[in-house]
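pinging the channel bc i need a second pair of eyes. not urgent but kinda urgent?? the chain im working w is below, pasted from the shared doc
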Amino acid sequence: MKLLEGQTVGIDLGTTYSAMAQIDNNGNPVSLKNADEKTITPSVILLGDQGHILVGPSFERISVADPANIIEAVKRQMGNKNFFKVYENKKLTPEFLSALIIKKLKQDAEPQIGNIANAVITVPYYFNDVRRKATQDAGKIAGLNVIDIINEPTAATLAYAWMKGELGRLELGENEKTILVYDLGGGTFDVTVVRYTPTHFRVLATDGDVYLGGLDWSARIVDHVSEQFKHKFGMDPREDPETALQMSQECEAAKLALSSKAQVPVNVYYKGKSLAVALTRGDFERMTADLLQRTRDTTELVLQQADVDPATLDELILVGGSTHMPSVEEMLTSVCKKTPSRELNAEVAVAQGAAIHAAILEAKETGGEGRMAKAVISRLRSVVSDDVNSHSLGIKVTDPDQRTQKMNHIMIPRNTTIPFSRTERFSTNSANQQTVHVYLLEGEAKDVDACSQIGDFRITDLPPNLPAGSPVEVTYSYDSSGRINATARDLTGNKEASTEIVRASGLDDAGLQAFESLAREYQVE
């Protein structure tokens, strides 16, 4: 996408915290501070009166707010058409709510660096195309030209290689490293194996879960202390929204404290009753052991899919605030027989990596003259990367074992290096068939209802008297920019049809313009 006049930045749009960074004139990724002089902003929205919206409110401000006006973890709802918040008689979608967070980052950073026009925004590797489109729309609604969507582990790898002084250093030759990026944030998790040289980055395998993160660890503490309170007083404090909110904040603080302390008190007040629960790190780790095991299973699976012996890894990189939990480091050390590196700042590394990727695009398109030193531009221009698709691509076909049912036939499995193209031969279902309807699916399951339909097209006017079982050839292609092409050809009459799926806006132009206008009306504080 073409760059607009103005500054170019990288944004980590996180579930619990968000951050923005930019490459400075000397080629260093610098985190841009918010109005509170902090490098991370809570991804929390407080809807106030008369269009006044507070993004990243303090603990004290949240504690006196109406829980119905507080929105958290909106990233988990990206791409969910059924989620919205009604505010001033308007339905606010996840894209719009996320745009408010981006708008806050933008307006806080502009006094430092000037007008921000372009951005690279990060997403979990395991985000599907619908969620990626929603993220792209959020940036546009916030008034930014989104020049790329980059996967969080790729961004972390760029930040790591830059920090080690390796990125773009041609004089280092083809010195190859293999690293594992374990990214456990507030709401999402993914793990990725990357093999790289100073100028070439190649993802070998990735997997994850968009509904697994630090919020789930905190929720276990909430449930634990609530059950203790219920057992003693016969009342459940979770039933009252205000109490539940205060308890959630206290349990979040307790979780953070347990990373450095062996025991912390958690206090619950409800309907005139109070209870102090002494929570030990051992208690916490036992009640969340299954969550950690899920990340371990995924880590071992990705290593297996990448065909990498964990003992041969050059480094284990921790990304995301939830990796501060000691149990994470212990688990990874057990799996890989190596202590994870904490050289990167887990909270801002992804935003800094996005800034590096943004600078690479800037250097390649405009040369970056006038803003970055020539030596930096030269290094950035030399970097290329190869990604894999995080979700399988298939088509809907008749199940050969149960002729009355349809199934997802995968043509491009996940973790296939892209660009990639595959051609396969299928056949018509019935005699005298006039049309072939091709449904394009994204997902791993055989059940078509468990997959996302990303497009469809038809071959029409097939030859007359075409017998059942006549051959139809389908070609599926996935290019490096995320475009998906599919072509089907009837081999009897040589009729052909095709479609292209492009990560355009999930919202139509009218919807985007309406939200952009609305975002300008609201005062984000």
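so The domain at 393-501 is CATH 2.60.34.10 (Substrate Binding Domain Of DNAk; Chain A, domain 1). and The radius of gyration is 25 Å. — does that match what u expected or am i reading it wrong
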